[in-house]
Design goal:
The chain is an alpha/beta fold. It contains 10 helices and 13 strands. Helices cover about 35% and strands about 25% of the residues. Strands 1, 2, 3, 4, 5, 6, 7 and 8 form an 8-stranded mixed sheet that branches. The protein has a 5-stranded mixed sheet with strand order 10-9-13-11-12.
């Protein structure tokens, strides 16, 4: 990427990668183009951004005119909670069982493949907040629902599940990696866009080795490491008897880069401790104000903060960076 990228550019880049509609993509591409430093080192990136904006506009125009190819499924799932983790894997890897163990969702769980034929979301509790998990249909060498690529691209985290109970689990994982490698949506150690191609994205991934309680699991895990060596964080679990699940739950939340913030009205003595807002690491008071109500940004006056980085009741401007556990009291012009 071009040198000296501004924090505003990097934030727009992250939002672009997480966009779920062409309209959202175009919005953030335009902000990225406006924020990128205009010098010789960034000329290639500027051209890529212009090309990508043109492509997105064409896609929007084709959709408006009804020229988009039909026959493909599409399931729009609004983002909720502190972040989103998408569960992918081969047939019978235990994706639905993981969702059922972590959330109140009730997917059909059965010992035969292709039980899941549509995405299913659920909310995983972590202390006083929730993380959105999305179960997806299996991916094979011959089967990949196109909308799953969109889920992977816009997610904060991918959980790549591998079946250790049978001989097919390793090959299933290899097939998934090959299918994604042929697309512009890839799995990665960290999330981000490719330095040479703004359309190529990587999403942070955990490898979840499931059915560790199976008698053949140790042998299969050793073979997996030999034939499918991935530089991703790895967890060994049993979604059926809940072995290793709490470590995975905590890691999922930590990967969201979420910051819990509590709010209070100027007329209240105590903050609302029941339902904190979750912002992303590096977000400011103005970002919080926009989450509460867009008019709060236009009419923002100042805020008072109680937290670990300031004295209680400190008056701050809109660019104050929120810390974990802050209490924020926003004042607006009437």
């Amino acid at each position: 990427m071009a040198a000296n990228l501004t924090p505003q550019y990097l934030k727009a880049e992250e939002n672009y990668r997480r966009s779920q509609t062409p309209e959202e993509e175009l919005k953030w591409l335009q902000i990225m183009f406006a924020e990128i430093p205009k010098h010789k080192a960034s000329e290639k990136m500027q051209m890529m951004l212009k090309t990508k904006m043109s492509d997105v506009r064409k896609e929007m125009e084709q959709s408006r005119l009804g020229g988009k190819k039909g026959g493909t499924k599409s399931f729009k799932i609004p983002r909720q909670g502190a972040g989103t983790a998408v569960i992918i894997g081969g047939p019978n890897a235990g994706k639905s069982q993981l969702l059922a163990a972590f959330t109140k969702a009730k997917p059909e769980v059965a010992p035969y493949p292709f039980t899941t034929n549509a995405p299913l979301p659920g909310m995983m509790p972590w202390n006083d907040v929730f993380v959105q998990l999305i179960d997806t249909p299996p991916i094979t060498s011959e089967f990949l629902e196109p909308y799953i690529l969109g889920y992977i691209r816009s997610a904060d985290l991918v959980l790549l599940m591998v079946d250790l109970a049978g001989e097919d689990g390793i090959q299933q994982c290899i097939d998934i990696l090959e299918r994604l490698q042929s697309s512009k949506t890839r799995l990665g150690k960290e999330s981000g866009l490719d330095e040479e191609d703004v359309g190529l994205s990587y999403t942070k991934t955990f490898v979840v080795l499931n059915k560790i309680d199976d008698p053949d699991a140790k042998v299969q895990r050793d073979l997996f490491h030999e034939f499918c060596p991935l530089d991703f964080r790895e967890f060994s679990i049993s979604a059926s008897d809940l072995t290793g699940m709490e470590d995975l739950r905590n890691a999922i939340y930590e990967s969201m880069n979420a910051v819990r913030v509590y709010t209070k009205q100027p007329t209240q003595k105590e903050a609302d401790r029941d339902q904190p807002f979750t912002v992303r690491t590096g977000d400011t008071v103005l970002d919080l104000a926009e989450m509460i109500h867009k008019e709060y940004v236009a009419n923002f006056k100042f805020a008072r903060v109680w937290g670990s980085a300031v004295h209680d009741g400190t008056t701050v401007k809109g660019d104050y960076v929120i810390n974990e556990g802050d209490i924020v009291e926003i004042h607006v012009n009437q």
